[in-house]
Amino acid sequence: MNRYFVFSCLIAVMSLVSCGGGGGSDSPSKVVERSFNALIKNDFSGCLKYFDIPTEATTEEKKMMLEFIEHMHRENPVVSFEILEESISSSGERATVTIKLVYQSGRESTDNQRLTKTDKGWKIDFM
Fold first, then answer.
1. What is the chain's pLDDT, residue by residue, as a tens digit (127 residues)?
2. Residues contacting 88, CB < 8 A, separation 6+
3. Per DSSP, which regions of the chain are E strands?
4. Which of 49, 78, 99, 100 is the most buried (most CB within 10 A)?
């Protein structure tokens, strides 16, 4: 995986702020919330567990993803977030959660987190 791929995938992470377990019955918004709560608490492994990581990803690639999340958060920490909207497709297999992020610098941004329903519940798309 190249750095640009990881960067674009993890931009989504910077929009998150959640924590806790990856419960299979949680709504897409709850998954995004938990992921960003983990990020805010510097629990990067906890944040990453809410992502739909390709099964073919190697241990080294997963480590690189984790390190990238940590690096990006340390460079521009997310201090709070707000879920603005949740939209689930008519098939019930895809969702988009719109969130507002607030960074330590005071900058704010809005981002869309795309999710897929898996056999383990809703997961944030990594790509």
1. 544 444 445 555 444 433 334 445 699 999 999 999 999 999 999 999 999 988 888 999 989 989 988 998 999 999 999 999 999 999 999 999 999 999 999 999 999 999 999 999 999 997 6
2. 28, 94, 95
3. 51-52, 78-88, 94-103, 108-118, 121-125
4. 99
Task: Quote the number of domains for the chain.
Answer: 1
Residue with tokens 């989504």: 12
Q: Give residue 80's domain range.
A: 3-125
Phi, psi (rounded to 5 degrees) for 85: -160, 150
Q: Which residues contact 102 (CB under 8 A, 6 or more apart)?
A: 78, 79, 80, 81, 108
Ramachandran area for residue 121 (φ above 0: left; ψ -120 to 50: alpha; else beta): left
Residues in a beta bridge with 99: 83, 111
Closest by CA position to 30, among listed 14, 19, 39: 19
